[in-house]
Amino acid sequence: MADIEGQVKDEELDAEQQARRRLALGQIRQYPDAALRMTARPVESFDDDLRRLVERMKQLMVEANGIGLAATQVGVLQRFFVFQASEGETVALANPRIVERGEVTTVEDEGCLSIQGVLVPVERSALITIEGQDEHGAAVRYELEEPYSRVAQHEADHLDGVLILDRTTPEARREALASLRPRIVIG
Ligand SMILES: [Zn+2]
User: 115-142 pLDDT, tens per residue?
Assistant: First the structure.
């Protein structure tokens, strides 16, 4: 399987996949969009609208070559995300709560579908237990190890407006922000 860098898979794409990826990324809010900094509200209605949105987000995630996507990244301020919970299994998790963390943490480079071209080191718990609800409102619980634990922590952060830029070292943050600054072209 491809290397996983936080939210983004690192693999070679053919021309058609690249075109699909660009289209998908065009529908995902990009830094510094204000929605990425907002705190999402709890999901209260588990209705067809929510399930349609979950399906659309799963599709966007795959087309963008990602392994997780939070509602805030598509401008929906509700507490849910879709993510790869194990090889080949993409699930939706609403109102997530990390209820247990292992003592061990690891530092790996992470990317984000909303911050293209940036990879920064982020420290995360290697093992977590996360609880919440699926898209039908049923209680679910996942015991996750890397890399899936990292993805779930990344997505849960998105629901509180927290980005990898806030989780990395001051040096990596400075470098990332410098590379994100719009270039001024004269002439
Ligand atoms: Zn992200």
Answer: 999 999 999 999 999 999 999 999 999 9
The owner of tokens 């270039």 is 183
- ∠ CA 112-7-136 to the nearest 5 degrees? 115
Distance (angstroms) between ligand 1 centre and the Cα of 187 equals 35
Q: For residue 69, report the distance from its CA to the centre of ligand 1, in Å.
A: 7
User: Is 123 among the residues known to form the active site?
Assistant: no
> pLDDT tens across 6-23, in order?
677 777 888 999 999 999
Global confidence as pTM:
0.92
DSSP string, 107-127: EEEEEETTEEEEEEEEEEESS
Residue 92 backbone dihedrals phi, psi, to 5 degrees = -105, 140
Residue 161, CA distances (Å) to 19, 34, 41, 87 in order: 29, 9, 11, 27
Query: Of 63, 110, 135, 155, which is the active-site residue?
Result: 155
| Entry field: residues in the chain | 187
